[in-house]
Amino acid sequence: MIKLHTNLGVITLELDEEKAPGSVANFCAYAKDGYYDGTVFHRVIPGFMIQGGGFDEQMKQKPTRPPIKNEANNGLSNEKGTIAMARTSDPHSATAQFFINLKDNDFLDNASDTPQGWGYAVFGKVTDGLDVVEKIAQIPTGTSGMHRDVPKETVKIERVEVV
Amino acid sequence: MTTLFVSDLHLDSSRPAITRLFFEFLAGEATAADALYILGDVFEAWIGDDDDDPHHQAVIARLQDLSRAVPVAVMRGNRDFLLGDRFALMANCRLMGDAEVVDLYGTPTLLMHGDSLCTDDVAYQQFRAMARNPEWQRGMLAKPLAERRLIAKSARDESAIQNSMKPEAIMDVNADAVAAVMREHGVRRMIHGHTHRPAVHEFEIDGESVQRIVLGDWYEQGSVLRVDTDGAALSRL
């Protein structure tokens, strides 16, 4: 179990080690390193998802470990309240950033093991604190430099507890 | 007399204040201009000239109002790359090519959207090549509007997740690509948008001083470039 302590409350996550072993190990390694401490939810799109884990409060990108293999073909769906690895258009490019789905986003699921169809690897779900997630989703957003959908009030991950 | 340049308005019904600001600009300052150039991404998304989105129809009507008195030229961007002849006819605008040289009060100036210059973003350039392929476009435009709308929405959502994963440097233009395109067109000034990093860059190519002007986006305020006989000035609206 993981507890994301944010300045808006605690989000408790249950990670699926069986179906997404690589993603879970990766997330826990970052968490135990304290990598996520002080990172923000930098992209918030109501009705879609909240994304975090890669930028500090100054919206500076943090250096990461090497990318991991995409486990989107593990049968888990991007349902409301699930957590998945963010990535670029390269399917196997996930590092530290993750997102929490605000609704059922099945278009993000694996359709085929091809660059277009790989999807986004779900590796756990919110078991408590969905109200905190909803609260984050409701914060007004604006631009910050090149970035869109950045919350106007900082939503910071203060620390991550691996229970 | 002044020629006006804007880009990256990303007009969408979800941001009515920006649409209003643009309408005020069209009905105000723009009516006194020699010409208005919109260098890409006037719309957040354009799913084909048969798009019946009332917001987009209202934009077309306002462009048509202006273009009765002032020439309006529109370039395709990376969001509205499906703008076509029917749109141009409805808006009474001239649809531009991807790179055009115009004479601005004696200075030949290259106009582009700018996305093709971001050559460090290899994945985007691959997408661009696909999306600009006439066969791919025909296939896309043959789908029902509702399906296209859904595809466009999913693509935007996905790029939202993906873009903040990219290093900032690869989201900017590549200096070699800029030099190459300016040499190719034999110009010492270019104007483009896309990167949302408004600035006037002065530098040298082959020992000659050149200027690259980057237009700003319309996310939280407007941005306009005014060019006249004295030069060029970027302003916020």
Overall spatial form of chain B? globular
Q: Record the strand order, biggest sheet of chain A.
A: 3-4-6-5-7-2-1-10
| Low-pLDDT residue spans of chain B | none
Strand arrangement, major sheet of chain B? 4-3-2-1-10-11
The largest sheet of chain A, given as strand count, sense and whether it forms a barrel, is:
8 strands, antiparallel
Give the low-pLDDT segments of chain A. Answer: none
The helix content of chain A is 10-25%
Note the topology.
The complex is a heterodimer of chains A (163) and B (237).
Chain A: E1 2-6, E2 9-15, H1 21-33, E3 39-45, E4 49-56, E5 82-85, E6 98-101, E7 122-128, H2 130-137, E8 141-144, E9 147-151, E10 157-162
Antiparallel strand pairs in A: 1-2, 1-10, 2-7, 3-4, 4-6, 5-6, 5-7, 8-9
Chain B: E1 3-6, H1 16-27, E2 35-39, H2 54-67, E3 72-75, H3 85-91, E4 94-95, E5 99-104, E6 107-112, H4 122-131, H5 134-141, H6 145-163, H7 175-185, E7 189-192, E8 199-205, E9 208-214, E10 223-228, E11 231-236
Parallel strand pairs in B: 1-2, 2-3, 3-4, 6-7, 7-9
Antiparallel strand pairs in B: 1-10, 5-6, 8-9, 10-11
Helix pairs in contact in B: 1-2
